[in-house]
Design a protein that fits this description.
Largest sheet: 4 strands, mixed
Number of domains: 1
Structural class: alpha+beta
Shape: globular
Oligomer: single chain
Helix content: 40-55%
Distance between the termini: 24 Å
CATH superfamily: Glutaredoxin
Strand content: 5-15%
Number of helices: 7
Strand order of the largest sheet: 2-1-3-4
């Protein structure tokens, strides 16, 4: 689906959760509501820095950026709007959003330590060959997550610390990592 369709799916879920079994769970519904607000904030505030902007605009070959995600995913609320803005800088890049929990279950080919962690970005060339895979979060953020988890920190505190990390980083790490991959 397009990024615009993905945003519409948020609206559909929030307006008609009865049509989406997973979102009849109040917790998932609230995550989705909060994530739509976070995405809106990043869409207004995030702009690729000049180095990344120059880099992404210089990509001359056609690429497909596939993002595997779900509306309830907190990390995706930060990364997906940034990835969408990055991809939009070059007409050679098409962005395709795939839901983790729906067919064709692309996530099964891109597991993280055996798990279905999201978001995952798969960058393919025009022949459908994988050029790079990124995710589920920037390396420093992932390191923080693993450290806190190892220390036995309560999950609600971990989520708060991850949120603080994303807000402080402002998308710098994800740009460096995508550029380094390509």
């Amino acid at each position: 689906m397009t990024f615009e369709n993905y945003l519409q799916q948020f609206e559909d879920i929030l307006n008609h959760p009865e049509n989406y079994p997973a979102y009849q769970d109040e917790q998932y519904y609230q995550y989705t509501k909060m994530n739509l607000a976070r995405m809106g904030r990043w869409l207004k505030r995030f702009e690729p820095n000049s180095d990344f902007d120059h880099f992404v605009k210089s990509i001359a070959e056609k690429q497909q950026w596939i993002v595997i995600t779900e509306p309830w995913c907190g990390d995706a609320a930060h990364s997906v709007p940034m990835l969408a803005k990055m991809a939009s800088q070059n007409s050679n890049i098409t962005l395709d959003i795939q839901l983790r929990d729906s067919a064709p279950f692309l996530i099964d080919s891109y597991l993280t330590n055996g798990g279905k962690s999201i978001p995952i970005l798969v960058i393919r060339d025009e022949n459908g060959r994988d050029l790079a895979v990124w995710g589920p979060r920037p390396t420093a953020c992932q390191d923080l997550f693993l450290k806190l988890k190892e220390q036995g920190v309560d999950f609600s505190e971990i989520k708060e610390e991850i949120q603080k990390w994303y807000n402080a980083d402002k998308g710098v790490a994800i740009q460096k990592e995508i550029q380094s991959l390509l």
